[in-house]
Amino acid sequence: MTMYAVLVVYNKPLALSSSFQSALKEPDVQLLVADNSTDESLSNQEEARQAGAWFLSMDGNRGLSRAYNAAFDYLKTKAGDWVVLLDDDTTVPAAYWKQLRQQNPDAVLLPVVRTSEGRMISPAEMRHDIPHPAHSWDSIEHITGINSGMAIPKQVADSYRYDERLFLDFIDHQFLKDMRETGHRIRVLPADLKQDFSAERPDRATCRQRLRIQKKDLAVYYGRRSWKACFLIMKRKLRLAYQVRSLDVLWW
After folding, report:
1. Less crowded by CB within 10 Å, the N or C end of the chain?
2. How many of the other CB atoms lie within 10 Å of CB of 207?
3. The whole model's pTM is what?
4. Among candidates 146, 156, 125, 157, which has minimal Cα distance to 193?
5. For residues 140 and 144, what is the distance between their CA atoms, to the nearest angstrom?
6. Tens of pLDDT along 94-124?
7. Is 105 helix (H, G, I), strand (E, B) or coil?
8. Contacts of residue 252, Cβ cutoff 8 Å, sequence gap at least 6
């Protein structure tokens, strides 16, 4: 079995990425790093080369969709079974790779992803095209999830193009929606990953920038159904207002 891992990194040294270290430990996993970093002081290309990983520089932050498309294009001519998407802030245990090796590449696989506090953030339940947290992964009727640890059959990755109008948010939900609409199966891989979910420790400036991106992405995803985008943005603002203890967030 041949597996490729695509790691999109943003302004983080590869040495500090737990998912980078995890993939390097697996002899049958070829790692491809797509670097969206704007920090020119990083030496990620040299670190990747020394570790035996392939490297793609995006020449700045071009967005997650473009990074994935560039990675998929790079892998198109290569034979393989799986393409695994990794975030730079996710802890991937060896058990994940062991379980993946036992699966046939006939469905998109979503692992169980939890925050450092133990809250499950993926998979989730999609109701009325709005993602909702699920208490248990085995009771989800309309499944969705996040990119972290998602395993995509290589033949699916070879034929898929991400919508590059989506910069960061809802790229994963759009992908899984497209999979359902084209008849591809989606299953849960019962392996737990832990994500350092930055939204749980918000910084005002970072949160404000993320909110701007989210507004644009949700406007693209929902199109004429703008009330859904407004609903989710307001939920996000209320959560941020509570976290940073300031009501001025509601006017951002």
Report:
1. N
2. 20
3. 0.93
4. 146
5. 9
6. 999 999 999 999 999 999 999 988 999 999 9
7. coil
8. 208, 211, 237
Length of the chain: 252
The three-class DSSP label of residue 170 is coil
Do residues 33 and 48 make contact, with C-beta atoms less than 8 angstroms apart?
A: yes
Q: Which long-range contacts (CB under 8 A, 24 or more apart) does 140-143 make?
A: 140/188, 142/180, 143/110, 143/176, 143/186, 143/188
251 is written with which tokens? 């006017």
Give the DSSP letter of residue 26.
Answer: -
Amino acid at 211: L
Do strands 124-127 and 143-144 pair parallel, antiparallel, or not at all (unpaired)? antiparallel
Beta bridge partners of 18: none
Digit-coded pLDDT (tens) for 42-67: 999 999 999 999 999 999 999 999 99
Site of tokens 């699966």: 103
pLDDT in tens, 182-238: 999 999 999 999 998 554 456 788 888 889 999 999 999 999 999 999 999 999 899
Q: What is the CA radius of gyration of the chain?
A: 18
